[in-house]
Design brief:
The protein is an alpha+beta fold and about 475 residues long. It contains twelve helices and 23 strands. The chain is elongated.
């Protein structure tokens, strides 16, 4: 790990980020980072608690003269999304993130950086460790498993926290103050099918879609980024009619909250149609690349000959499946009528797995309006049920309803304008923040979300802007000094 990172300003924050990024912390496997955070709190002599689900709470008394201020909960999540480039050799379970500086940005070598939400965690750690930063009483809340289900926030019981204000440090635009977010639900379609022996007159090909940017399936769903699962389905769609194409396997996408970057398929075609197949695939690849060249300049669609698969999918199931994936909505379903430029409801077709007689299609449906979320989920359900799939809704979590009369919002809005000479963008976001869930057990807590500029979250292109982190750090310190007296 580059020592250059530790020399960046503010050094207190960047050093804690480097310490944190040395600890493997995949979602659902946070044992090491939980132990790391507990050891950190205890090393400072602060009250440190691990709750029933693995969240860590560290409490620090106010600095002198600020004992009568409202207790502030500073909150970030410990886990990070694990994505890497196809040609990057890296084990997220054992290795720390390898970082480097490029201009005004901190990046990782072929993997996600973990700035989401590691910079928030590092901010809180730096304040807990500080001896010269004025602040009110602090309850640091480090939640687990935010990226794959928000089970940490869901499992946090009422009564563990006494704070009246919550600062969620998980927003990715430094001119934005977050006051609301979308809820979400997983829509998973499954079915089994009969496999057939591949006829002798067929030959095998591997089709790959790769080089897409990927990204956050909420914050970037409106940007027109390519979805590898939808592109692959488009490539395969008319294959049977034209070339006798039969699907053997598909493996597309990875995480539910990441726009799919890659998909691979093994297919069999009639040998007699090989030349026509290669010509049409080349033309189709060129057409799709031309369509997406502005947003996806590195898109590759490759077709390579391989050994003919031994088994292929039942033709009726194949035809129904490709039509269902084509019909299933991916992207924006509805824009908000109340908040300009806010995506209200969307879907990400995140995962497509076809192998050994089993189909699994995973989607993440998001909305800031619960009824609209259910409407889109039911649209997907109907689409996949028409092709014989069983559809399950799971992992449901609520959105966070904006409170424009928030007292801490007024404090932060004025501070931002005083510091930066311009008004902040007060907005809700189309991503899943933990505030809505935490508010169920702490309904009287005044919540706000903010953070530094982070681009490409949930993809190997993730990067954090150094100058923005400096701007954000200054804002954090001023907020802590301006926390009002408890009522």
């Amino acid at each position: 790990m580059s020592t250059e990172i530790r020399q960046l300003e503010p050094t207190a924050l960047w050093n804690k980020f480097a310490d944190l990024n040395a600890v493997p912390r995949p979602s659902k496997k946070e044992e090491r980072v939980i132990a790391f955070m507990k050891d950190f709190g205890k090393s400072l002599g602060l009250e440190t608690i691990e709750d029933e689900v693995g969240n860590v709470i560290i409490k620090k008394p106010a600095t002198a003269g600020m004992e009568n201020r409202t207790t502030v909960v500073m909150q970030s999540h410990l886990d990070m999304v694990h994505q890497k480039n196809n040609d990057t050799v890296f084990d997220f379970d054992t290795q720390g993130i390898e970082m480097f500086i490029e201009g005004d940005w901190v990046k990782a070598k072929g993997t996600t950086l973990g700035a989401d939400n590691g910079l928030g965690v590092a901010t809180i750690m730096a304040i807990l460790e500080s001896t010269g930063i004025p602040h009110p009483p602090i309850e640091a809340l480090f939640t687990i498993d935010e990226e794959t289900g928000m089970t940490g926030a869901m499992g946090l019981k009422g009564g563990l926290l006494s704070g009246g204000i919550l600062l969620n440090l998980d927003t990715e635009e430094d001119d934005e103050i977050g006051v609301g977010c979308a809820g979400g639900t997983d829509v998973t379609a499954t079915r089994t099918y009969e496999e057939e022996e591949t006829p002798e007159f067929k030959i095998g090909y591997k089709i790959s879609v790769k080089g897409l940017q990927g990204g956050h399936s909420g914050m970037q769903i409106h940007e027109g980024l390519g979805n590898a699962n939808k592109i692959m389905n488009r490539v395969l769609f008319d294959g049977f009619e034209n070339f006798g194409l039969r699907i053997s396997e598909i493996d597309g996408g990875s995480l539910r909250n990441a726009i799919p970057r890659e998909s691979n398929a093994i297919v069999a075609i009639d040998a007699i149609h090989e030349d026509a197949f290669l010509l049409e695939m080349k033309q189709m690849a060129e057409t799709i690349k031309k369509e997406l060249k502005t947003m996806e300049p590195d898109l590759e669609i490759t077709i390579s000959k391989t050994e003919a698969p031994k088994k292929i999918m039942d033709l009726g199931v194949q035809e129904g499946l490709t039509r269902a994936i084509y019909a299933a909505l991916n992207g924006v379903y509805r824009m908000s009528a109340d908040i300009p430029e806010l995506v209200e409801t969307s879907n990400n077709i995140a995962r497509v797995i076809i192998k050994d007689g089993h189909i699994k299609i995973g989607c993440l449906t998001r909305s800031s309006v619960e009824s609209s979320k259910l409407d889109l989920a039911n649209t997907l359900r109907a689409t996949f049920e028409l092709t014989g799939c069983e559809v399950e809704f799971s992992g449901d979590y609520p959105g966070w309803t904006p409170n424009m009369d928030s007292a801490i919002l007024k404090v932060m809005t004025k501070l931002y304008e005083d510091i930066n000479g311009e008004k902040p963008h007060v907005a809700a976001c189309h991503a899943g923040l933990e505030c809505g869930i935490l508010g169920q057990n702490y309904p009287d807590m005044d919540m706000i979300s903010f953070g530094p500029n982070i681009k490409g979250a949930h993809s190997p292109d993730e990067r954090a802007q150094i100058s923005s982190v400096q701007k954000y750090w200054k804002f954090v310190l001023e907020i802590l000094k301006a926390i009002p007296v408890k009522s």
